[in-house]
Amino acid sequence: MFPNPGKADSRRKFLIKSAALAGASAAAIIPRMTSAAPPGAMEFPVPQDPTKVQGRAIGDDGGYGTRSQFETEVRWRFPTPTKQSSWSMTPLEKSVGVVTPSGLHFERHHAGIPVIDPNRHLLFVHGMVNKTKKYTMADLRRFPSVSRMHFIECSGNGLTEWAVPKLKTVQGTHGLLSTSEWTGVPLSTILKEVEVKDGAKWILAEGSDAAVMTRSIPLEKCWDDALLAYGQNGEAIRPEQGYPLRLILPGWEGNTNIKWLRRLEVSDVPYMTREETSKYTDLLENGKARQFTFVMEAKSVITFPSGEMKLPARGFYEITGLAWSGRGVVKRVDVSTDGGKTWQLAALQEPVRPICTTRFRFPWWWDGTPAILQSRCVDETGYVQPTIKQLVDVRGLNGPFGSIYHLNGIQSWAIASDGSVTNVHHY
Fold this sequence. Notes:
The chain is 12% helix and 29% strand. It is α+β, with helices and mostly antiparallel strands. A hairpin with a 7-residue loop joins strand 18 and strand 19.
């Protein structure tokens, strides 16, 4: 019923066979770091009956936990020419709940992942302020902190899908989306301390990577809910997510959440950097470009069943997926099993948090005939997730006069009579 069962089963059989050869009478279970173990796991021999032998010793993992050797999901890197300027996608089809494991959070890098010593890292705050300041990481950790659950979505999530369905799985079509608990200092705390001058309207946020990633951020957002995050899911933020310091702008496109943050310059105008002029803008048919399209609008996707899966037989299934909105709380998710002819209300799994992914569930009896599954998100502002056609009618198609970013159209999965699931466009 689930994707790629053959690969997982063959690996499991291999491990069981290895354990049988080792014998159940082994006095101790010794881990082995081999290429057979998936990333993040250690391989251990598998006894025929775990109640008849001692388990492995505490600390054999080096003191930092590992995942089961039977869990194989990993991020998938889109095949760009270089690994430094590329992106990797979260395996949403394997996700449970709404939190993304830190090791599976999607990545988007413009010049690779820098190695930064937190003891030498500084955050410089200057420009239209009365008190220019430099903060060490120790300085920042002395301020009162907060923890919040928020999704981050790359504005290019789904960029391959504007004209025709191209990628086969939900990891490919929607995997530039992840959710973490972020911990840090509200940026408003720092702005109060440096005393922002009257007339200031923008902040330039700058990263410490080799691309020196920079974006202009309206000051209003910085005062509202921006966070200087040093924690992710209960530990230090991961290097690929901005260690040791990342700017978190809840609900705004991922590239504005500047990683490896080193500088904030307060100004009265935007800086028109490369990443907000030639990049991260959408050229329209009239020659003008959509610019500073910060907010990620309401969106949803069914993660089960989804592309490349196969339902084994007619019968009961629970359709499930994720919904989110950069404007606040997900108010409702509708599910269609007939290609949008009729819609029914899905159940939302509590808690439903603002600017956070929400899991939805819908019971479905499949009668074995072809079907098209869709989901549609409505957020607290009343915004209704559009079809891809509605977006194309406004912005045009991908290319010299089309869109690349902010594709939040309704995703369609076609179920064939043999149970196979494929990515389709259906309006």
